[in-house]
C-alpha cells in the first residue's frame, strides 16, 4: 500500500467538509476520486498534502504516518501535487519553472534525465522552453504544471482536475500521457469531474458525495454502476 487514508475528517475552521473518508492506493495504480462540484475532492487533496489539518483519522504514505506533517516534508517524502489553477511562475521561463520543481532533488543527473523525459512527453514545452510561462495557453500551462510536479521524481502524483478549462482535444492529449507516467513507476491519484474519462483509465475509483465516499470499485465496475451512471453520466 502506498497511500492509505483512514476515517478522515477534515475541513476549514469549524466547517467540516470530509467525513469518515477512507481510501487506499497501491503502488503502480491510477486511482480516481470522482464527484460533483463542491463534493470535497480538492479538500481531500489538501488534507493529504498537509495544507489542511486532519480533525480525525489517519493518513499513511509509504510506511509513514503523514497527517500532521508539514507540507514540504510530505513533498520530500514523495508526494507531488498539480493544483487546480496550476500556480506557475508566470514571470519565469518554462525551463526555470521545471528546474524549480526539480530543485527538491539533489541529484543533478536525475534532474536532467527527468527534464528530457518531460520534454519527450510534451515537445511543446521543449520548443518553448525559453518563453515566459504566462504567455502559455491553458493546455500548455497544464503540461507545465504536470511537468514541474514530475521533476521531483514523486512516488505519488496528485492531480486535481487536470481537465478543467481545457479544450476536449487537450484533455485527451493530457490524459493519454498518464499511463506513461504510471509506467515510469509514478502512482497517480486523480481527482476529476470528467467521470467517464477518469474511471476509464483507472484501476479503481471512489465516488465522493457531500464529503463522504458513497461508492468504490474498479473503474469498469463503477462505470457499469446504475447509480453512478444516473448521477454522473446522465444514462
Ligand atoms: P470543485 O470541483 O468545485 O473544486 P471539490 O469537490 O473539489 O469541487 P472542494 O473544493 O473540496 O470541492 O469544496 C468542498 C466544500 O468545501 C465546498 O462546500 C466548498 O464551499 C468548501 N470550501 C472549499 N474551500 C474552502 C475554504 N477555503 N474555506 C471554506 N470552505 C471551503
From TrEMBL:
<keyword id="KW-0472">Membrane</keyword>
<keyword id="KW-0067">ATP-binding</keyword>
<keyword id="KW-1003">Cell membrane</keyword>
<dbReference type="Pfam" id="PF00005">
    <property type="entry name" value="ABC_tran"/>
</dbReference>
<keyword id="KW-0813">Transport</keyword>
<dbReference type="InterPro" id="IPR017871">
    <property type="entry name" value="ABC_transporter-like_CS"/>
</dbReference>
<dbReference type="InterPro" id="IPR003439">
    <property type="entry name" value="ABC_transporter-like_ATP-bd"/>
</dbReference>
<dbReference type="InterPro" id="IPR052156">
    <property type="entry name" value="BCAA_Transport_ATP-bd_LivF"/>
</dbReference>
<keyword id="KW-0029">Amino-acid transport</keyword>
<protein>
    <submittedName>
        <fullName>Branched-chain amino acid transport system ATP-binding protein</fullName>
    </submittedName>
</protein>
<feature type="domain" description="ABC transporter">
    <location>
        <begin position="3"/>
        <end position="235"/>
    </location>
</feature>
<keyword id="KW-0547">Nucleotide-binding</keyword>
<dbReference type="InterPro" id="IPR027417">
    <property type="entry name" value="P-loop_NTPase"/>
</dbReference>
<dbReference type="GO" id="GO:0005524">
    <property type="term" value="F:ATP binding"/>
</dbReference>
<comment type="similarity">
    <text>Belongs to the ABC transporter superfamily.</text>
</comment>
<dbReference type="InterPro" id="IPR003593">
    <property type="entry name" value="AAA+_ATPase"/>
</dbReference>
